[in-house]
Amino acid sequence: MHCPFCRHSDSRVIDSRTSDDGLSIRRRRQCPECGGRFSTIETASLNVIKRSGVIEPFSREKVMSGVRKACQGRPVTEGDLAVLAQTVEEAVRQTGASQVDTNEIGLAILGPLRELDEVAYLRFASVYQAFDSLEDFESAIEQLRIDHPREA
Ligand SMILES: [Zn+2]
């Protein structure tokens, strides 16, 4: 396991515990080179049922490419997208399901994307939730204002 901080090719497991649901093992690791600590989670496979009925393995890259479109022209980095995809995967896995549909993935994307960039969130939500009127946008924007009041 490469160190995410310095890319050192080795790391030491300092703690290892099974999650409450028994579906994953979380390992705390430390890099012997830079001393950086990070966690890894070992899990069973997770599949996604597409709208077409096709089943394929969950892919963070697919989450990233879906969100990337909504982020065009926005100050969102590839690193931000990677973190978002990881958050989405963890949220979906926390449900304990071994198979989810694309709808559930879309739902799991909305929350972290809103934290990341509100404009990208509105774009993504407008497609995902099939906004079909200005009122839909207005109520989504109104909700953003309630949850995240702009600092004066
Ligand atoms: Zn390191």
From TrEMBL:
Region (Disordered): 1-20
Textual note on the cofactor: Binds 1 zinc ion.
Keyword Protein biosynthesis carried by entry: no
UniProt KW keywords: ATP-binding, DNA-binding, Metal-binding, Nucleotide-binding, Repressor, Transcription, Transcription regulation, Zinc, Zinc-finger
The organism's place on the tree of life at top rank: Bacteria
Zinc finger region(s), unnamed: 3-34
Cofactors (names): Zn(2+)
Stretches with biased composition (Basic and acidic residues): 7-20
Pfam families reported in the protein's UniProt record: ATP-cone, Zn_ribbon_NrdR
Keyword Transferase listed: no
Domain ATP-cone: 46-136
Family: Belongs to the NrdR family.
Described purpose of this protein according to its UniProt entry: Negatively regulates transcription of bacterial ribonucleotide reductase nrd genes and operons by binding to NrdR-boxes.
Protein name: Transcriptional repressor NrdR
